[in-house]
């Protein structure tokens, strides 16, 4: 019988060197994620900037102030038409919209199909195609804007998008535990969207 082949084992020095490399890589990744989160929070807190008149406005439901901001933009003729995307099936226009002139109300479409940001993008794309829209104002919370613009950009490659972030009450105190949890959740969802992962269970 031939002697059993001995498999060479890495020396303790090599093991230590590999461990150091892994720790450094982990530290670098963690640092990049932390810096990215700091930038994400800073970006989420930025106020809306003036932008030109657009063919349409879309409000992505799921947080306070979004519908009100979009209605204000429409009444100021900042856009020709308005889509409110992600309306709950049981919610009618009377419960959702304040009293307004019929001319203004006729420019509003309520979208009942979306239950996630990806579905918001699909619903918006269908409305954009039906209404021949080439420039679009996007109204959503500041912490949701990056992911919304990413998903809308994927479904509307020929449409120019203008962000109009809304500052919800949570962002008035960004360092509280609840707000930080929301920001961390949205940050992770945005990173997932960048990587191509799908987040369908709910929308923000």
From TrEMBL:
It holds the Pfam family DUF218. The keyword rRNA-binding does not apply. Residues 55-187 form the DUF218 domain. The keyword Membrane applies. The chain crosses the membrane at residues 21-42. CDD domains: YdcF-like. GO terms for biological process: Gram-negative-bacterium-type cell wall biogenesis; peptidoglycan metabolic process. Keywords: Membrane, Transmembrane, Transmembrane helix. One of its GO terms (cellular component) is plasma membrane. It comes from the Bacteria. This is DUF218 domain-containing protein. It comes from Acetobacter orientalis.
